Amino acid sequence: MAWVGIAAALLPNGRTVASIIKLDINNGCKSCRINLRSDLAKWLLECEFVLWDEAPMSPKASMETVVRFMREVTGIDLPFGGKVVVLGGNFRQVLPLGYFSLQLC
């Protein structure tokens, strides 16, 4: 998955973060619209790892929402519900200060 549609289009079977996690963009990406018993939630539970391209371009709220949602889906109180997550992108495009305040643990 990727934050922007252009990067998602370059990935095989790629989709945007907002389309996979159903982020409520109108609410500042602070919530998602997935039922924990839905087929999509079950599919996310079965995923072994997550590849997130253009992660530095994502708003902090979107990453926190994904972390919180994956914890709820898996029932595991670890960052991203214990899933292996690879954050890709050009980390030189943004200042590192914003990522120090991300509450993953």
Short note summarizing the structure:
This protein is mainly α. Helix content is 36%, strand content 8%. Strand 1, helix 4 and strand 2 (84-87) form a beta-alpha-beta unit.
Structure description:
The chain has one domain. Helices cover about 35% and strands about 10% of the residues. It has helices at about 5-10, 15-20, 40-45, 60-75, 95-100; strands at about 50, 85. The protein has a two-stranded parallel sheet. It is globular.
The class by helix and strand makeup works out as mainly alpha
Quaternary arrangement of the chains shown?
A: single chain
Outline type: globular
Please tally the β strands and state the result. 2
Give the radius of gyration.
Answer: 13 Å
The proportion of strand residues reads 5-15%
How far is the first residue's CA from the last residue's CA?
Answer: 22 Å
Query: Stretches where pLDDT falls below 50 for ≥5 residues?
Result: none
Total number of helices = 5
Largest sheet: 2 strands, parallel
Average pLDDT level? 81
Strand order of the largest sheet: 1-2
Pfam family, one: PIF1
Protein name: ATP-dependent DNA helicase
Family: Belongs to the helicase family.
GO molecular function, one term: 5'-3' DNA helicase activity
